[in-house]
Amino acid sequence: MSGLTSGILARLHSADGYLSGERLCREFGITRSAVWKHIRQLRLSGCRIEAVTGSGYRLLALSGAPVSAEVALFLNTGFAGRILHYRMETESTNLEAKLLAAAGAPEGSVVTADFQSAGRGRLGRSWVSPAGENLYFSVILRPPVASYRVPQITLLSAAAIHRALVEALSGIDARIKWPNDIVVGGKKLCGVLCEMQADPDTAHFVVVGIGINVNQGEFPPDLLDRATSLRCESGFSLCRPELLAGVLNRFEELYLQWLREDDLGFILPYLERYSLLHGRDVIVDQLTRQIAGTVKGIAPGGELLLGMADGTVRPISSGEASLSSAYTM
Ligand code: BTN
Predict the structure, then answer these.
(1) Do residues 306 and 281 lie in contact, with contact meaning Cβ atoms separated by under 8 Å?
(2) Which of 181, 210, 318 to mutate to test the pocket of ligand 1 (most atoms within 8 A of CB)?
(3) Which whole number is the average pLDDT over 90-98?
């Protein structure tokens, strides 16, 4: 979509009622037939625009796809999402973002897709990515920090997503499950997959991949007990571009603060307040071994602090945590 088409969409979106064709011509310095072409372009992209003789144009509804022009309506970032590559279909937005990052894409560039044919989750799992319902996107970062700090970005992202979700749906009881999930009622709503290209000392780039189940109404039988969506939880369909912008707005704010700090200390109270695991007995699966303990908190470096049977507290830096009660059920 051209800059002018996006500009006209933004103008229609901010207008209170109808905007005459004549006014759009004047404001954008274009002819009436050019205005009409842009309106047609917007309609083709799925926006509903009413045209009334004598009154002008009125935006009735956005397409709801996470395209650049629609996300931009709700963005208030300096760099996150200001360059946004939208794909109707891709294998994985993380895969595309890594290619773009390797080719020099600037910090904050985002790849988003309506459908992923091979969406990837943590630990080699797949991420079910049906078309037209959810958000799948990846943010390219170039943090000037030592690579040992990069895993902290996963928790930072979880906090940003949580804040955006709660702002979008105030009643929702979403919990952050260390290190990368957002869950509601024990079911997964969102996952984060961070990947980086780094030397031992420096991170060249980081790709933060985020999948949020937004408007999905039904889940395949194998996910029924484990996955949910905002729509299933609230009964409402959400505007995906607005939610995506909300996450990016919150993410940029926390990311900039994190760059100024040494660690996650500034966000720990938030992470602990909304933690699913705080004070609970858990089992952390590290593939080669399982560690059982009681969650005491999160360390400033992002590690899960696990109280052991012998009274010591052990920092756990990676693994998949599950509530012990879920194991015995
Ligand atoms: C997990 O919880 O296992 C992480 C899931 C991450 C899924 C997102 S969807 C957008 C991005 N592209 C991918 O292929 N994966 C991430």
Answers:
(1) no
(2) 210
(3) 98
Judge: domain 281-323, CATH 2.40.10.
Answer: no
Q: Which of 85, 89, 94 to mutate to test the pocket of ligand 1 (most atoms within 8 A of CB)?
A: 94
Residue 166 above 80 pLDDT? yes
* CATH architecture type of domain 3-61: Orthogonal Bundle (1.10)
Whole-model pTM over 0.90: yes
pLDDT in tens, 241-260: 999 999 999 999 999 999 99
For domain 68-273, give its CATH number from 3.30.930.10, 3.40.50.300, 3.40.50.12780, 3.60.70.12.
3.30.930.10
User: What's the confidence (pLDDT) of residue 327?
Assistant: 53
Q: Cα separation of 34 and 143, whole Å?
A: 42
Comparing C-alpha atoms, which of 317, 75, 100 is closest to residue 207? Answer: 100
Residues contacting ligand 1 via CB (< 6 Å): 92-94, 116, 119-122, 125, 127, 136-138, 180-181, 191-193, 209-211
Distance 259 CA to ligand 1 centre (A): 24
Please tell me the residue having the least CA distance from ligand 1 atom 11: 209
| CA 210 / ligand 1 centre spacing (Å) | 5
For the segment 66-74, the average pLDDT, to the nearest whole number, is 96
